[in-house]
Sequence to fold (244 residues):
Amino acid sequence: MSTFVAGNWKTHLLNDSAVALASDVAELCNGTDVAVFPPAVYAQSVRQALANSQVGLGLQDLSDLGPGATTGDICADQARDIGCQYVLVGHSERRIRQQESSDWVAAKAKAAVDAKLVPLVCVGETLQERESGRHVDAVMQQLLPALQVMQSGDRFMVAYEPVWAIGTGKTASAEDAQAMHAQIRLQLAERGLEQTLVLYGGSVKAANASELAEQPDIDGALVGGAALNGQEFAAIVAAFREKK
Ligand code: PEP
Fold:
């Protein structure tokens, strides 16, 4: 089965350190099953650093609209033009800070697919939602609008990232993550979208990657903090490659 590991660099790094990290990733874990998501302003330099590798390039967000009057956005045509193949949509940091609704996220995912970019649709519950037992409903409310705009054959991935596990050092237990992934897989299968990979994100590191990778419905990882170190990121990639 195929797996995928994505590194989200957020607003960390400056040009030189981004290029150096991209070179490390290309050297340490080259493959089509890996992509990095640098700050958009460094996407071109990172693309050059990845030029002799198969490592994919992505943006951390995308406009739901085409070219036009949306100041500060990046549209799908521009993402493709600078050599991106992937894009994150609906990361919880944006759902919370920019108040992105699930319909808006779905529109971004559709804009990506229409431009032959592969969106990674991020979903995840808050701690309060988990503690009150509403975590599955919360995730499905985020996910279903995006699934409604997808058709069988569309290339996209889902990243399940519990908000309380992002950047906190707390990882969902492998069993809890697996249980949510199984629910997501069910929804995908009901819509003929079973080829879609479901990644886990939330404090993934070399030390916990193998246990997560052993779960039948965890197809890969979306990695934040640990993606900023080439060796650590490569160890996570290696853990998922063992699953194949
Ligand atoms: C993320 O930002 O998507 C993420 C999972 O971050 P971290 O790995 O640092 O928790």
Notes: Residues 174-190 form the longest helix (17 residues).
